[in-house]
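chain below, 497 aa
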Amino acid sequence: MASVLMFPTPFPDETITSLVTRYHQMSGGVGVRRTLVELFGAVTKSYASELPCYLTHLEAVSGCTGLVDNHTLLPYFEPFLSAEKAKRARELMQSSHPLGLKLELGITAAGFEKYRTRRYCTRCIAVDFAVCGVSYWHVCHQAAGVHICPNHHCYLHRVLAEPETGDFNQLFLPSDIIGREEGHAMRSQSEIHFCRLAELADIIDWGRCNRQSITRLLKGDYLHFVINRAGLISKGRVCASRLEEHFINSSSDYPGDYEFKRLFELHHGRVVWPLDLLRRRKSSHHPILFYTFLNCLGIDLKCLIEDCSDRVKYNSPPKSPALVESMEASDLEKNARRKSFSIAYADVPAKSTGDYTWLYRHDKDWLQSYISGHRKAPIVRDLVDWAKRDCELAERMCSAVAEIKAMPGPPVQISLAAICRVLSVPPDTFRHQRKLPKSARVIKNNLETRHDYQLRKLAWAARELKAEKINCTKSHLLRKSNIRVCCLSDHEIYRFI
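prediction:
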């Protein structure tokens, strides 16, 4: 694999998109496809993503290393992934078969992808020109939830992809679009909104650069530690109503658009994701949920760093000895409950028995073992009186067939679709034909083939020609009946002449 000439040295926090753009401009900008094939070995749109793929090929031809860790957003997602998913994500970014990467990271399911735009800071551009001689795209500006520059605490400008080219032909640097219509500054928000967004940007950027610290906090159940410190845990249980009320009140501190529109969207008057986040201790979730949770509870960058330094950990309060003793059941009671359950389970579902809840709490292993060893065939209760439905449908179908035949104008073919339109029922109404024998016979006896339909059209055409006093010839018949591909023999046609 030949290496490319004059590949630029990556700047700190530079995105892969920026690297590719600088190489494209330095090499003369001959063509986008040629540039992509040289760098990635294929024409791919993933270069415009903050999670690009084909990186093994790019590292081989450019001589750069550590692209995944230093120049993509994978470190932003990695603490919230299991070890298997993180390894799989790295493999997909290195490979030439990147399908499923965003599904693996939970980006697609989270629903924040539609708010993704490329962002830049005008002050960073000035610093980049002074230090590096060229502007470039920063990774820290592209993370979901970052609308304030973590370095200069000013609003970021957004660049939307052109509708005609999408993410494909987007080889430009921030300095190339300053003053053009493509760059849009975020609307000025209130002071409260700005402070919240600045704090959120700070902790997101710090978490991305210190993913081991975030991983350690997650292992220590940091979210429960934070809400416990805020007084939202009582006797070892989360005060769900108070927590929910807190997040609903906090929603006014954030803008009503971008990712926050989805985050604080009410479902039946509730904000549901904070409680869902507390329950997902072993599953992956989008990082913006974690950081917004902390931000709503007043965790700023200073507090986050202190908690990481102190290695805080949530320790759930131990159950009292009296409660533990009360939960332990005697063998005599267990045997009685087991016997009662086994008798009742023969006639009713497991959860409908009177002893299910008690056994689930005190004898769960035996309960699961018994149910798995005594599985019952599911009982299918037919809630539809198919005989009555069959009679009604058969009668209505006969009326529908007569109605179709009596329609004025050119004949309409008697098909299942036409019958369903007349009856105003969906076509799958007759899917269970074995349960609808009468209706099935009506369908079989009345549906027209193309041959039968054309015979009926010829009979109609002959009557119309006679009424219009036009000579009834073969050509007139076929033209009047609008038959182009004839399925009839000459003998059948001449019957109407």
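The chain is about 50% helix and 5% strand. Strands lie at 118-120, 157-159, 183-185, 233-234, 237-238.
thats it, cya
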